[in-house]
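Problem: given the chain below (213 residues), write out its structure.
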Amino acid sequence: MTEPVSPQVEQEPAVAADLFGDRIDLARAFTAVLAEQGEERGLIGPLEVPRLWTRHILNSAIAAPLFHGRVADVGSGAGLPGIVLAIARPDVEWTLIEPMERRVAWLDEQVAALGLTNTTVLRGRAEEVGLSATFDMVTARAVSALRTLIPWTAPLVRNGGELALLKGANAENEITAAQKSIRTFLLTDVRVETLGDGVLSETTRVLRATVRG
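Solution.
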């Protein structure tokens, strides 16, 4: 097990090496630089550093097996989940969409430093980047409530493609509140899947839906 990067940083959980396999060194490098620069650059709050692995890195990585083909991460921010997933799944083509210039700069830096040749960063809002119906899947994490998020993400998905949105404990209630958007954007098979039970100390909820646009 790797020693903490600094006294404040959470020690790497043993399961991290299982989730990342031979890519674990890239995950460690990203976690270390996010812990070092994240608060200063406005990417994460000060309370997140001591739980960075558990709450953010592994919370994102556990979803990696769900993805395939061409995937967009909307509102990628600090690279959660986009950079983490791009590390874990080098066989998938990732597009990280982020409107804020300083966060785009951060994402570009990490893609270059980690050698993520499977990853492209685009600056802009999801509804403005001109990539309608381009992707096999679209993901997002901690961006907005589902009723707002669906109009931003669903138009990016090809007919028969899928949304896989990382959500919190309120995910089921968000589905109820988003019924109008679900109907408008022709989503089917809308459900919440819980990942990491018995593996992670904090499970991950993924809202999945097929887009029949």
